[in-house]
Amino acid sequence: MPWACVIGSPIEHSLSPLIHRCLWDYAGLNGWTYLKHEVTAESLPQWISSIDDECVGVSITMPCKKAVIPLLDIVDPQAEALNSVNTLIPTGSLKTGFNTDVYGMSRAIELSRSRSGLDSRGRAVIIGSGATAASALAAVVSLGFAEVHVVARAFHNGKVPVDFHRAALNLGVSYHGHDLMQRDELSSCCSLADVVVSTLPSGALDAHVSQLASMPKKASFLDVCYAPRVTPAIAMCQERSIPVAFGVDMLVYQALMQFKLMTGLDADDHAVSAVFDLLGKN
After folding, report:
1. Which residue, 201, 271, 212, 245, is CA-closest to 18?
2. Domain 3-100+249-281 - what CATH class?
3. What is the annotated signal peptide range for this record (predicted)?
4. Which of 6, 110, 186, 265 could form a disulfide with 16 if both were Cys (CB 3.0 to 4.6 A apart)?
């Protein structure tokens, strides 16, 4: 029977099985199986070689998003530019890699802003400089934001995050780098922002939340963390009536594109609503 899974390490916390099983149920894909497997970068080559003809796709999380690329036959141009693959689709003997994180972020940002009637697309501020930040860079540029500022520890003492900078060059995008550890630097960047995206892991932004208070009411905020759903940064924005997009929003929208890549089907509105309802209870 057809199967798919999510791989990475640690993987126990992953919500991907809940999301995809719900989408499959609504699509009537009875008998299809979606699992999760603990796979490290070191064990990845052996695991990839074990994929059989029944596999319809693999969702990929850290630390395998970069490590999987040399093991693929084809890499989608955007995923190649970002050096980050979160979806593997086997077709016959060929394995193709895609990045659906960019779509997930851009869709989450776009919907949160449109619901609030926001249309200004001047300055985007990205917090962090890892692989997720590179996807955020592609997302805000795809939405038409004209100026990008990146605030991260990696810019401390004039340093430049090599992988992030390479991704920006590959995308043909310029940005302004700022040291997160420099006093009030984040606050200064956010004061003129139209959108702020935090790509930091859970808890890493908490010490800097007070600096987000400089965000104008015309701005919106996305926190990619989905556990907890309401992070301290999200709570602060909600208190100030700043439109927010949750990490779980991004997670669901990127999964919708994975679902289409794996099945060839578009999830209908009832299925999407069911997924959000399900995640609200977990």
Report:
1. 271
2. alpha beta
3. none
4. 6
Q: Which two tokens stand for residue 190?
A: 């956010």
Residue 11 CA to residue 193 CA, distance in Å, equals 34
Q: Which amino acid is at 37?
A: H
- Within 8 A by CB and 6+ apart from 1, the residues are 31, 32, 33, 54
Which residues form the catalytic set?
65
Structural domain boundaries in the chain = 3-100+249-281, 117-242
pTM: 0.94
Please compute, for residue 115, the number of CA atoms within 13 A of its CA located in the half-sphere on the CB side. Answer: 12
In terms of CATH, what superfamily is 117-242? NAD(P)-binding Rossmann-like Domain (3.40.50.720)
